[in-house]
């Protein structure tokens, strides 16, 4: 019975985005522009490189994969809680006979499902025609799909963690900026971690952000020798983040101060 309720929220979130058709085209256009800019930068770097460190086929594919993966992340869950804290609607949500964290997860799942069908897939098809994409080896497909699942769960938990901290600060503005900066650098979205110097690469390996872009793309390209071991470590991050957010959740409920309500 509860699962039906969560699936209903998921479907409602999916349907809500269908009404914004113009936004779909803008997002697809934005994805292609981002891919074009990244690929142009890598082409310029490759043309001025004398040591052949940059494989253009790999970098074109890497840019397309990371841009696509970023559209499937659930970090924006903090925006939902932030707006509800400001309006006071979170009080009515907490009174519903459902788990609020699971409600947030399935709401984000509906959004991600919409993005996958109407944003990511069309963007990849257009990119395939414009830039070409290196196809993965058969042995890389399954761990790549698993890495996408790990990326979505970790991104949700990170976004949820930021949202819970907002119960103390009553805003996520500064936290949002910090999260965006950390993701831009350590997720490897723009620069693959294999190009980092040893110190920064080591630091990135100790953070969960690499699972939000670099790990899926590296697995797709066959850059990781032990992808399943990396994914097991990702599951360790999921377990750790679950422990933290569950601890903060109960503390946040006790401390709840609602603005505007």
Automatic annotation (TrEMBL):
Swiss-Prot/TrEMBL keywords: Membrane, Transmembrane, Transmembrane helix
Ranges that cross the membrane: 25-47, 59-78, 112-133, 145-169, 175-196, 228-249
Full protein name: ABC-2 family transporter protein
Species for this entry: Paenibacillus arenosi
């Amino acid at each position: 019975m509860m699962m039906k309720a969560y699936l209903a929220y998921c479907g409602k979130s999916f349907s809500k985005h269908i009404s914004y058709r113009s936004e779909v085209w803008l997002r697809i256009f934005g994805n292609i522009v981002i891919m074009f800019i990244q690929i142009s930068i890598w082409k310029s770097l490759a043309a001025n490189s004398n040591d052949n460190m940059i494989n253009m086929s790999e970098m074109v594919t890497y840019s397309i994969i990371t841009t696509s993966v970023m559209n499937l992340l659930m970090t924006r869950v903090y925006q939902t809680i932030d707006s509800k804290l400001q309006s006071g609607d979170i009080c009515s949500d907490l009174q519903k006979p459902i788990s609020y964290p699971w409600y947030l997860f399935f709401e984000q799942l509906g959004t991600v499902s919409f993005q996958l069908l109407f944003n990511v897939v069309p963007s990849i098809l257009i990119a395939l025609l414009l830039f070409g994409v290196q196809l993965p080896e058969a042995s890389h497909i399954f761990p790549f799909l698993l890495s996408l699942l790990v990326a979505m769960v970790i991104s949700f938990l990170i976004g949820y963690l930021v949202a819970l901290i907002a119960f103390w600060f009553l805003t996520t503005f500064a936290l949002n900026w910090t999260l965006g900066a950390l993701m831009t650098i350590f997720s490897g979205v723009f620069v693959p971690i294999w190009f980092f110097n040893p110190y920064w690469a080591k630091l990135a390996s100790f953070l969960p952000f690499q699972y939000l872009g670099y790990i899926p793309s590296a697995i797709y390209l066959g850059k990781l020798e032990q992808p399943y071991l990396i994914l097991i470590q990702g599951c360790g991050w999921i377990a750790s983040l679950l422990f933290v957010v569950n601890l903060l959740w109960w503390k946040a409920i006790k401390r709840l101060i609602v603005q505007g309500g």
